[in-house]
Predict the 3D structure of the following.
Amino acid sequence: MASPLMSITPAVTDAMQSEVIIDRSVSPAPASNGDPDLSGAPSPDMGASSTKASDWHILVVDDEPDIRKMLRDLLQFEGYTVSDAADGMFGLDQLRASPRPLIVLLDYKMPRMNGEELLQAVMADPQLAHRHAFIFVTANLPSFSPALHQLLADAAIAVIQKPFQIAVILDEVERAIVRLATPPGSPGSPGPSAP
């Protein structure tokens, strides 16, 4: 399965195969025009137990076009519906517009609204905070404020440092799906301290 994946964007995927760091201390389609394409996301009344890739929608929020394209190609190859946003403001607009759960791959340093500001806006709205799952993907871990580290820990948001390995992204997306597909408080619910 690795060879077909590598043929999607060989230069980018080869570059991304270097060492990966996951900060466990804080974690246990075509480019969009700002309008979310929710055609592949699970419906709000869908039995929240589906973990099939084609039932889930991923939003990539990153200001780097090459990173957005590589992640979009990878995730679409895996069967997910994917949209993207070039900054936190467009990302927040899509989160607010989506009645369905999204898994959000979120960069930190972006123009107009960075990843921390987007998360603060989401956490201020409990409905948004519980509807979506977030994975921070960043090269700027050393510049995180203590408040951001605390926010990530409190919300059990995984942090993947760039450069990353593709398998790590896919594993974290699967964990996010399990969190969203398992109702809080139910037996087997991973809860905030899950890895």
